[in-house]
Amino acid sequence: MAKPVTQFICSACGSIHKKWSGRCDNCGEWNTIAEEAPLSAGPGKSLGAVKGRAMALTDLTSEETPPPRQSSGLAELDRVLGGGLVAASACLVGGDPGIGKSTLLLQAAASFARMGLKVIYVSGEEATAQVRMRAQRLGLADASVKLAAETNLRDILTTLDAERPDLAIIDSVQTMWLDTVESAPGSVSQVRAAAHELVTFAKKRGVAVMLVGHVTKDGQIAGPRVVEHMVDTVLYFEGERGHQFRILRSVKNRFGPADEIGVFEMTGAGLAEVPNPSALFLSDRDTPAPGSVVFAGIEGTRPVLVEIQALVAPSSLSQPRRAVVGWDSGRLSMILAVLEARVGISFQGLDVYLNIAGGMRISEPAADLAVAAALLSAREDAAIPPNCVVFGELSLSGALRPVSQAENRLKEARKLGFSQAIAPEGCKTGDGAGMELKAMADLTRFVGDIFGAA
């Protein structure tokens, strides 16, 4: 009998190594390689001569009824899920420790239960008494949610198979233990096997499953990336500890749009929905000062206005600081290079600090022009008009590229009292939402019109 071949798998990127080493050659992470037995019995194995059943094939013109959805009663959660909870779906929720994942899912469980669903909440990290105390503090004690504290996955699946709930919440998948896998809970093997068993159970029994996943120091869900491919929906719960805002972001959704966000506010009574996040992000905005620019962005299908803050100060270091919060540091370096190469404005010898107010994170390139405006405003000590919003993508040639959904951005800005907008030429703005629109072709014209002889 052939001896099973042992593999060494990196928990950060999933690459396979022949032997253990302290550093992964593929992703460069340290202390992420762990020993794991292969899933197959050994080399040379095949399916043999036994045939399987024939598959039923359909064509692209076939029509199927879309999966039914169950509303949670929380509009922000339904938005991120694509309209509601789909039966027999598997959802993975990740987030930093203490950000409010358990609070969010407990409120979601109570809300689904009040809408008539049978919900079971299984905690592998807390006792049922702790979950019950949190429910009483949040005013959810009257919801008909069944609780259990267990880590043995065999016992959990047996209970779920007997109860047949509509929704099962597992908090968290890293604490689950499968007795057929010879490794400790939280290891790559255990996480992968537990996720596979739970997703398979959801599909076979028609039970929607929500899994909580721990995250690494880089903010990615811990464990092999294959777990994210197993599930139907991957949600990240984001936010800064110093801010009361919490953002539930969809990065994968087989039943709805990805990159959709739901905004919540952390209060003493739990997470409260924020139907108008733009007003909340700008509510604490002080008197407009140099370096402050309002960006009209799009998150998923929702227009969101946020404040971009920049600070430029003389540096005493040989290499000035470049500190960024809520945006890509590489894109900041690109914009600084374009400003110097195309407009002749240098930031050499200057420390540059960039912050997205409210703990928001922005990834779309439409924020390039707003960031450039904030940097120039801080450097020249000239404030942008308080009733003006800015958006546009910046190319390496210094030209401004049109962005999508410009009309929706302008409508949202108009709704919040803004009357001016600076945008690239060629944007489909419709009637401009009744705003005074300044269309710019390139960065040189923008600098000349807004900041004069900068």
Automatic annotation (TrEMBL):
SUPFAM superfamilies: P-loop containing nucleoside triphosphate hydrolases (SSF52540), Ribosomal protein S5 domain 2-like (SSF54211). The keyword Zinc-finger applies. Residues 66-215 form the RecA family profile domain. It comes from the Bacteria. GO terms for cellular component: cytosol. Residues 351-454 are annotated as: Lon-protease-like. ATP binds at G95, D96, P97, G98, I99, G100, K101, S102. The keyword Cell inner membrane does not apply. Keywords: ATP-binding, DNA damage, DNA repair, DNA-binding, Hydrolase, Metal-binding, Nucleotide-binding, Stress response, Zinc, Zinc-finger. GO terms for molecular function: ATP binding; ATP-dependent DNA damage sensor activity; damaged DNA binding; hydrolase activity; zinc ion binding. InterPro entries: AAA+_ATPase, DNA_repair_RadA, P-loop_NTPase, RecA_ATP-bd, Ribosomal_Su5_D2-typ_SF, Ribsml_uS5_D2-typ_fold_subgr, Rubredoxin_2. PROSITE patterns: RECA_2. HAMAP family: RadA_bact. Plays a role in repairing double-strand DNA breaks, probably involving stabilizing or processing branched DNA or blocked replication forks. DNA-dependent ATPase involved in processing of recombination intermediates, plays a role in repairing DNA breaks. Stimulates the branch migration of RecA-mediated strand transfer reactions, allowing the 3' invading strand to extend heteroduplex DNA faster. Binds ssDNA in the presence of ADP but not other nucleotides, has ATPase activity that is stimulated by ssDNA and various branched DNA structures, but inhibited by SSB. Does not have RecA's homology-searching function. PANTHER family: DNA REPAIR PROTEIN RADA, DNA REPAIR PROTEIN RADA-LIKE PROTEIN. This is DNA repair protein RadA.
